[in-house]
Every structure is written in structure tokens, then in C-alpha cells.
Amino acid sequence: MATDGPVVQVRGEAIREVPPELARFAVTVTARGRDREATLTQLAERAAAVRVLLDGSEPAVARREAGDLWVRPQTKRSGERVVGWLGSVTTTVTVTDFTALGELMLRLADQDQVEVAGPWWELRPDSPAHREARHAAIGDALLRAREYAEALGARVTALIELADSGPGDRPMFARAAFDVGGAGGGVPELELDPQPQTVQAAVQARFTISDPVLG
């Protein structure tokens, strides 16, 4: 865009640390045996036990997604003769109530042949934190433009162009793994400290300024 008069181009940035809004973790159920049908039955029963625990944890559990199901034969190294079967299914769980998170993860890990991994802390895609960071980045760009203009004895007069230049948000996570093969006894207490999320926004802006006062 052609413009008359001097132009100042600046980059505005904003970095904020905000509390997470979601926590995700993965629950993997495993079964193995010599007979395929028996192994599949055992896998289904253990997966059903996990579902019962998750059903009893609502409304803390906001979402769950089953996936990564596999069953494969186990063979001897010397040939293709099948000597057993191994199966696994993983469920990804999203939790919004962090006060119940540690207890839920340990209760799941206390089940037979269950592995729990996570949590991964996140913000909601429509979190107000994203909007606030973008507004702050624009404010930073305008402040910088005014400071440059003032150093020249001028003032900002109009916005020519504004572009989002990133970078995007950087999710933070913490990973812990629990693998308990039927622990028996009481479930211990576990406190998890939610990790702050770093939200970033950056813009490129061009402004016209009044004629500088030089000399």
C-alpha cells in the first residue's frame, strides 16, 4: 500500500502464564494369554472395569476417547508357531476438576494390568487467555510505535497494516507413569500441581506518523 509521509514498522509481543483449564491422561489396559478368545475376553473385561470407574467419576471427566486397540499373536523366535496372544486398548481421558485428578489416576492404576500416563496440561481452544494475549500484543505494538514517534518529535497518526506473526501457544505438560498389577489394599493419595501454560502472541504493525522534528 502506497502511503504519503513517514512510516514506522514495529513488532508487538505478549507472553502470559495462566493456569491450565484441562488435564489429559492415557489409560492403557493389557491382556495376554495362550488362547486368543480368552485373551480377548480378558481384555474386554478389564476395559469394562475402567469404564465403570470413569462413569463413577463424572462430572469431573469431561471427555474420554477410546483408541489404539491392537491384538497380536506371540511366536517363538525359531518359527511362526503361535504360543500366545497379547492385546491392548488405550483410552484418553480429559478432566476439568483437578482436585479429583490424582485420586482418579491412582484408582485406575490400581486395576489389574493397567498403565496410566500423564497428565498433560492444556488450555481450552476457545480460552479467553488467547484473546487477552492477542490484545496485549496489539497494545505493545502501538506503544512501541508511539515511543519511536515521540523520539522523533512526531506522533502516530494512522494504522496502515496489522498482521499476526506468531508464535503460537506452547502447551506445557508433566508426565508420570503408573503401572500397578492389582495392588490390593488402599489407594495412596497423590497431589498433582497444575503447570502454568505459556500463552504467546505477536503482531507486525505499520503506522503512519506525522513529520518528524529533526535537529
Q: CATH H level: which superfamily?
A: Protein of unknown function (DUF541), domain 2
The portion of residues forming beta strands comes to: 35-45%
Q: In angstroms, what separates the terminal alpha carbons? A: 30 Å
Which structural class do you get from the secondary structure elements? Answer: alpha+beta
Kindly provide the radius of gyration, computed on alpha-carbon positions and rounded to a whole number of angstroms. 27 Å
Number of helices: 3
Which architecture per CATH? 2-Layer Sandwich
Number of strands: 8
On the 0-100 scale, what is the average pLDDT? 87
pLDDT below 50 for ≥5 consecutive residues: which ranges?
A: 169-184
Walk across the major sheet and give the strand order: 3-4-2-5-7
What is the 3D shape?
elongated
Q: Biggest β-sheet, characterized? A: 5 strands, antiparallel
Structurally, the number of domains stands at: 1
What is the CATH topology descriptor? Alpha-Beta Plaits
Helix content: 10-25%
Structure characterization notes:
The protein is α+β, with helices and mostly antiparallel strands. The radius of gyration is 27 Å and the shape is elongated. Helix content is 25%, strand content 41%. The protein is built from 3 helices and 8 strands; from the N terminus they run ββαββαβαβββ. A hairpin with a 6-residue loop joins strand 3 and strand 4 (82-95). The strands form 2 sheets. Strands 3-4-2-5-7 form a 5-stranded antiparallel beta sheet. The protein has helices at residues 36-55, 101-109, 128-151, and strands at 7-18, 22-33, 61-75, 82-95, 114-122, 156-164, 176-180, 197-209. The chain has a single domain (7-209), classed as 2-Layer Sandwich (Alpha-Beta Plaits).
